[in-house]
Amino acid sequence: MRTLPMGKLPSALLGRFLNKIQPKDQSVVLGPAIGEDVAVIRFGSKLLVAKTDPVTLAIDLIGWYAVNVNANDIATLGVKPRWFLASVLLPENCSDKDAENIFDQILAACNSLDITLVGGHTEITYGLNRPIIVGCMLAEEEDQPIITTSGTKIGDDIVLTKGIAIEGTALLAREVGALLLERELSPVLLKRAANFLFTPGISVLKEALIAHTNTDVHSMHDPTEGGLATGLWEVTVAAKVGILVEEDKIPILPECKEICDKLGLNPLGLLASGSLIITLSPTDTPGLLSALKEVGVSAAVIGRVVKPEEGLKMRTSKGIEPLPQFARDELARFLETSAQPAKQRSTRKKVKA
């Protein structure tokens, strides 16, 4: 027996758990697998699309995160999320005002994406020192072929929208802003980074629907915990392919780079919700980039899909090297090792979007 670190389960352990599942229900179109974050179930002529995801690292605007991160996974299938349920677990010292603020955040996020809050559960929970939200997002689609991560094809271009790491940068700005100011980060940059939740935003719904509507995309995947590097690894596992990325083509946001430099973190392994990985034929790439540009979404080709035996590599100034891999997200690693509770509390008062 061993003690597990904070963050996602180690991939080998998760794989062992998933291998115990024996599919029996023929109505399950897409079941659990590494790299596939959504379940799809056939109901007559319709498909039910379902997703559940918790938010455990954020405190400030946790309700906004919960709706958006669940909506993002639904969007990667090219489907519009429609209904949301939330299980909200609150610490014992939570005030009625704190609880109402979280509820209002959930409603605001749902309204911004035209999603209906249909239910859930709320309770004060013994042993918590921070709120936790477990979200469940549902959608409906016609019974037709769906976009999956496993649809990635050898020879595809790999397109990344917006840049990295939007969510992780915003979380660090909001949760440890006082520490960053102590390390001489510009207050103006800190405020801009804290506002990444809204600009450029952690939702990928717009670009996912644009990509699906305008182009024959082979797969879409949003890099979340473990950052871009883990998101690309999940693509290779799901599709049984290799990937070669170009280091100098990866759009690392300046605010992300500076904050990571101050804290000794690697942007490639930092929570990256807000970006979307899209794979498609190189002949379709110009049309995708043009369609995204028309709606104000930046995007860049960061690499290509190669044969599985070529592995997951990155071309750097030193040559072709293995892409760094992260056993857990850089944010989780930092929060676990830093022990800055007082600074975190003061930050939530000082840093406002």
Uncertain parts:
340-353
- Written as H for each helix and E for each strand, in order along the chain, the element string is HEEEHEHEEEHHHHEHEHEHEEEHH
For the record, the CATH class of the largest domain is Alpha Beta
Distance between the termini: 44 Å
Shape: globular
What's the architecture of the largest domain in CATH terms?
A: Alpha-Beta Complex
Number of domains: 2
Give the assembly state of these chains. single chain
Describe the main β-sheet briefly.
7 strands, mixed
Rounded mean pLDDT score: 90
Helical element count? Answer: 12
Secondary-structure-derived class: alpha+beta
CATH superfamily of the largest domain: PurM-like C-terminal domain
Number of strands: 13
Helix percentage? 25-40%
Q: How would you write the strand order of the largest sheet? A: 8-10-7-11-9-12-13
- Percentage of residues in DSSP E strands: 15-25%
CATH topology of the largest domain, by name, is Phosphoribosyl-aminoimidazole Synthetase, Chain A, domain 2
- Rg for CA atoms: 20 Å
